[in-house]
Amino acid sequence: MERFVTRHQDRIAGIITGFDRMRFRGTLRSISNWKGLRIWLNQQHVLLKDFGPFAERLSAQLLAHARAMAEEFGRPFEYLSSWKISKEDRAREILARDGVRDGLIAIFECVEGCRSFRVRGNRQTRRLELVPSERRCAHLYFYYWDHDFGLMHVRMQTWLPFTIQICINGREWLAQQLRRHGSRFTQVDNCVFDIEDLGLAQRLLRQLDTRPWARVLRVLATRVNPLLRGHQLRPYYWSLDESEYATDVLFRDRASLQTVYPTLVAHAFQHFHTPDVLRFFGRPGTPHTAEVTTRVQRRIEGVRVKHWVAENSLKMYDKLGQVLRVETTLNQPRRFKVYRATAPGTARHWVHLRKGIADISRRVVLSQATNARYLDALSVVALPTPVAQLLDPVSRRRIVNGRPYRPLRPITVEESRCFARMLDGRALLDGVRARDLREGLSAPPPTDPADHRRLTARVSRLLRLYRAHNLIAKVARTRVYRVTPKGQQVMTAALACRAATLEHLAA
To answer: What is the residue extent of each domain of the chain?
Structure first.
């Protein structure tokens, strides 16, 4: 990310990084499976033949509680005839109309699909049994203007097992906190820019990374679900069902971003292939490990480039034409790893990342790194310098510590093979090793020992040569080399010159 900021430092006002949208899911694990639900029904002295009426009574209690809340606070309770109606748009209309700035805005009821249970007769055992099923039931949407989180909502399923979703927007949180600190800013939708104190804004966003979410979510759930008291139900288990972690590059004005953004979009769509996208996510896999798709779409917010890796995605768009947003969305964290102990007193090792809120800190690290790698890969785009200004210095003889080094021949076949190998997507994470260049110069590898020694010596000379021209730098106490910012510019320019057509150059 530092490379991107350095490249466009005259256009950029600052950067803020943190959670954008967070969708938490609350599950009553003791009744979320048929065995647990059967035990709970026995505790409530409910027979399976009475399951339907019992579930209807509980649902009626939840609806009555919601209507009582709306009446108590003097807020509207509305039934929406279709799930396609935007609840947030309707809540914003009521918010603008009534000027609510604390507490409940409105409650909406809407019939939507859900996962639940039904009672079915088993012909073999001649008994009734509980089976999971897809059904439709009423869902309640509680929209709040929260003192801390601004506009947010809680969605509750009114049929067993009473699953809850709580949606919070990180930029709404930031705006609310900046207001409390008296810091000036501009907010449009979920985008905050023209921030007076960027350091304060970043510190406030970081608070979401380590917030005690279990306590916050428990309070919100207890507020909307009265059945948690007096029905022998264990508390909700909370997971982060979906998270959007965004890096906002705040440009000084619209013209500054629009000068470079079309080139960024074209580069991302044309040059970021499957291995590159996998490397952005920090996944050392091969292209067949997951399906990768890239799409460019023009939306109201701006032009968006989105890369899907199975269920997770990475996208870039020009928010309001002035903010460049790179955002990592994690829907299925199990594709990543976390270093933790699986049981108390056991040794830590790498295991699948969970959706539970206990692994939020690891999710933050992964998302930050993904956004940073993406911006680093875009740092070579829209260079304001002519290609000759990059290639001429490396095309001259150079003396380092009294030792002469030959000029580079940037667009020759041999040099371009080495450049392409060092700019491969793997270099973003693993760096470059001597064996990488050997594979690039000779495929398949030589079988004769003498040829192998000559190839090894040749690669060693090339590594010294590229270090002398400051194209690569050696990582201390390793055999790994990293491509320098100058190296990325020179190599990218040289490969682009080789790939350019005469029609393109003459245009």
So the answer is: 386-506
